[in-house]
Write a structure and sequence with these properties.
This protein is α+β, with helices and mostly antiparallel strands and 262 residues long. Helix content is 17%, strand content 38%. The chain has two domains: 111 residues, 3-Layer(aba) Sandwich (Rossmann fold), CATH 3.40.50; 133 residues, Probable inorganic polyphosphate/atp-NAD kinase, domain 2 (Tumour Suppressor Smad4, Sandwich), CATH 2.60.200. It is found in: Cytoplasm.
């Protein structure tokens, strides 16, 4: 990362008045580098928009995706820095780098079509109709759960473990733990199964049982595939995404604190 004087920043914003206003003010003050030439992207919005920006950086086909520095102009802002206009180049240049590996989803539809997508937070399977889904879960070629009757299930990265995974009562995973969270969504049978922590090297395969009667969709961040027959999920170590945080924010500490939140 270049020093503050040489840093080229590209600004992106969510489609809200608050975010657009912030972008206009910052572009007027700091300029706006073309996306393909930027050293960092400054994302203005909420956590969802930050994920969109990370995906956009992947699509540029650079050797490494552009680091993203988020500032909160949305609602939750768990992945974002505080919004301040002063000394922005200095803040970005001095930011801590947090490296993330997304999940790769390979979904096979009932008609045989295969769809691949990356999920930075999680890959989730969700029932499509009023009837519960029936899933078989295999880990590294061994069937671990022959039948799970549920609303769905998800695999979360450590960075995503505080999002949908936490809402589904899954565990919060420290960034350097080297594990993925496998969490059921409203499990009916077996009632007492609360999920599992798996090595980050694991390959998780979901087979959809009674797919005609109980259709299931698969979602990797913003990619939804309906009427799936099988979904394979594994960590994609060949892709590294970089988030930038102010040193006082300390993203690992923020995740740790979430485990003791009231």
């Amino acid at each position: 990362m270049p020093g503050a004087d040489a840093l080229r920043m590209a600004f992106a914003c969510a489609d809200t008045e608050e975010a657009r206003t912030a972008r206009n003010r910052l572009v007027h003050r700091y300029g706006n580098a073309p996306l393909g030439e930027a050293d960092a992207i400054v994302a203005l919005g909420g956590d969802g928009f930050l994920l969109e920006t990370l995906h956009r950086g992947l699509s540029l086909n650079r050797t490494r995706p552009i680091p993203v520095y988020g500032m909160n102009r949305g609602s939750v802002g768990f992945l974002l820095n505080a919004y301040r206009e002063d000394d922005l180049a200095e803040r970005v240049a001095a930011a801590q780098h947090v490296h993330l590996h997304p999940l790769r989803m390979i979904a096979t539809r009932v008609n045989g079509e295969r769809v691949e997508a990356l999920g930075i937070n999680e890959v989730s399977l969700l029932r499509e109709t009023r009837q519960a889904a029936k899933l078989r879960i295999t880990v590294d070629g061994i069937v671990r759960l022959p039948e799970l009757i549920c609303d769905g299930a998800l695999v979360a990265t450590p960075a995503g473990s505080t999002a949908y995974n936490l809402s589904a009562h899954g565990p919060i995973v420290p960034l350097n733990a080297g594990v993925l969270a496998l969490t059921p969504i409203s499990a009916f049978r077996p009632r007492r199964w609360r999920g599992a922590l798996l090595p980050h090297t694991a390959t998780i395969t979901f087979d959809i049982l009674e797919e005609g009667k109980r259709p299931v969709s698969a979602v990797a961040d913003f990619t939804e595939v309906r009427e799936v027959l099988q979904v394979e999920v594994r960590e994609c170590r060949s892709v590294t995404l970089t988030l930038l945080f102010d040193p006082e924010l300390n993203f690992e500490e923020r995740i740790l604190k979430e485990q003791f939140a009231p």
